[in-house]
Amino acid sequence: MGSINTIAVLYGGSSSEREVSIQSGMGVHNAICDLGYESDLIDFKDLNNLNELKIYDFIFIALHGFEGESGKLQKDLNDLNILYSGSGPEACSKTWNKKITKKILKENDINTPISIGISEFSYQVANNGLNMSPYDCFRPFNYLFLKPDEDGSSIDIFKISDDESLKNAYKKCTNNKRGFLFEEYIEGRELTVTVIDKECFPPIEIITKNEFYDYDAKYISDDTLHIEAKLSKSELIDIKSISLEAFEALNCKAWARIDLIQDKKGNFYVIEINTVPGMTSHSNVPKSGSLLGLTYNEVVQKIIDASL
Known about the structure:
Elements: E1 6-11, H1 18-34, E2 38-43, E3 58-61, H2 66-69, H3 72-79, H4 89-96, H5 98-107, E4 115-118, H6 123-128, E5 144-148, E6 158-160, H7 163-172, E7 180-184, E8 188-196, E9 199-200, E10 204-207, H8 215-220, E11 225-228, H9 233-249, E12 255-263, E13 268-274, H10 284-290, H11 296-307
Parallel strand pairs: 1-2, 1-3
Antiparallel strand pairs: 4-7, 5-6, 5-7, 8-9, 8-10, 8-12, 10-11, 12-13
Helix pairs in contact: 1-11, 3-4
């Protein structure tokens, strides 16, 4: 273990991903205790001052949403010289914003779906419909995705097919006063690749009966499958290469999860990068580790080692 003896697991918080973060944090905390470290589980909303974390040798961030993934926490911990898991503030702030992520991916010639941004999902945007010139870059299309610039767990993501579905999305949207992007819909397989210490774990394919991998498919439905992706040798080389390229282009450190789509022609597109992936017992990171014969605890240890 070296000089790391005491570890605080930071979880919970007040974002829309609180419940998932609680599950992640509890799993990580139990693993850390099993691994022989001294550990405390700290709900971010109960933390009055980050200085309270100075008594620990290391902080494992299992805090999802803006509080744990936007880069502010990482910057504050850097300023206090506190060691923590995962990427630094720059990588977190870039990956937290889908618009910025896509810009960097394009600059590095990494495939990502075409998109256009809007400053907010206003009534005017909803009422104008899809026959406006900004949508010409997508034509012809059967569907578009509409998603917030910054959020996780598929909150406020909508599959748009026509003017009526756009209006319905506006009615259902929980927070339209923020940046959104319209994104090209690519029909194909949903895949995710875990990267720990610049090593790609076996890709996972996500199969859902829902229209897409929405909040219900992620956290509620018992029908969603997470299975080892059946890929040819060349496809495996391609997906691992593009995942590592994305990891490095966004300056990620230690660990991340790269979410991708493979189209009908076999091309891979990076959808987004998550610098604080879920670590529930059913999450894709431990699932992917298990395909290498790693236990949940061993995956946690690898994340800690890669972060130092």
